[in-house]
Design brief:
By secondary structure, the chain is mostly helical. It has 2 domains: 151 residues, Ferritin, core subunit, four-helix bundle (Ferritin), CATH 1.20.1260; 151 residues, no CATH class. It contains 11 helices and 2 strands. It has a two-stranded parallel ribbon.
């Protein structure tokens, strides 16, 4: 038996009053979700925030109508029943799982919320044999369709081409600040700073396994250090750089990847084969960094190439010189 389901009611066992109470609590929850989305988006995406404000207002209006219907049919005392009390009833994802995933993801989740509620009520209406209950569920399904159409009208009215372009630019800028910038810094640090210890070890020992272990330790250590440094540098509130956790993970992971790229070839037992492949990987890494700088940071490709390749060549040369000496 599945824990947590034994005390749940089946939807088919609910009375008409309980179904109405469930609809009221669901409308209230959805309104609060939309209000949370609106508040989350208000600073960077004001037009989308207005759209969710309007959708929350629609949910509150439907909730008031449902309450009035309940008062007419059953009185003022509304039974306490929520989604989690009913087995098989659709569930909402926690807001914190969605609100940090970006504007488009929030819009998709909102559309899915309305479709999910509509589909559920339609399926429930088809299953019931009671005429009054069937009508009630059909009305609820129609209400959810109305929500979807309202959202479409609000989006058409509020999200003009100019507003969409502005919000798209804001989302792109946030993506750059939160993910690309820290990730690029990590990739540069991991790729360049580990060159000297890895190749110094390689030429000093000509032992591929020892070289791999040094590279692995240097990459993981640098990843942890860079990730923590980025996460603790600022909380993103004043700088607008976004979640420090996201930035820390982006920087730390890319730092580790940057170092592991030219450490992994030393899993090959033959020293010169491993070294040749590692040098090729370094070359690819450095050009990839230059390409990312050019694409996302608007750095001229020639300048980015000269900076990255020249710096990498100096560190590589230092490693070979120290190891070969």
């Amino acid at each position: 038996m599945i824990p947590g389901l034994t005390n749940r009611r089946r939807f088919s066992d609910l009375s008409e009053q309980e179904v109405l109470a469930l609809a009221i609590s669901s409308e209230e929850d959805d309104a609060r979700i939309y209000e949370t989305y609106a508040e989350r988006l208000r600073g960077d995406f004001p037009e989308s925030a207005k759209m969710f404000d309007g959708m929350a207002a629609e949910e509150h209006q439907h909730r008031r109508r449902l309450i009035e219907l309940h008062q007419t049919r059953f009185g003022d005392v509304i039974p306490l029943i929520r989604r989690e009390h009913v087995a098989g009833y659709y569930a909402r994802k926690p807001v914190w799982l969605v609100e940090n995933l970006g504007l488009d993801r929030i819009r998709e989740e909102a559309a899915g919320m309305e479709r999910q509620a509509h589909n559920f009520y339609m399926a429930a209406a088809r299953r019931t044999q009671d005429a009054d209950t069937r009508k009630l569920l059909g009305d609820l399904a129609a209400a959810e369709i109305g929500h979807i159409r309202t959202a479409e009208r609000l989006e058409e009215h509020l999200l003009t081409e100019e507003a969409r372009e502005d919000e798209g630019q804001a989302a792109h800028r946030q993506f750059i600040l939160t993910w690309v910038q820290p990730g690029l810094a990590g990739l540069m640090d991991g790729s360049v700073s580990t060159l000297a210890p890895i190749f110094a070890t390689a030429f000093a020992t000509q032992d591929t396994w020892t070289t791999f272990l040094v590279g692995l330790a240097a990459s993981v250590g640098a990843g942890i250090s860079m990730g923590l440094t980025e996460a603790l540098a600022d909380d993103g509130v004043l700088s607008g750089r976004g979640s420090p956790t996201k930035r820390g993970f982006a920087c730390g992971i890319m730092t580790t990847i940057g170092g592991l790229g030219h450490a992994l070839p030393y899993l090959i037992p033959d020293f010169w084969t491993a070294t040749t492949i590692a040098i090729i990987v370094v070359f690819i890494e450095l050009w990839a960094i230059a390409w990312i700088q050019n694409k996302y940071m608007d750095t001229p490709f020639l300048r980015a190439s000269l900076q990255v390749v020249f710096g990498g060549a100096l560190v590589f040369g230092a490693g070979v010189l120290i190891g070969g000496g």
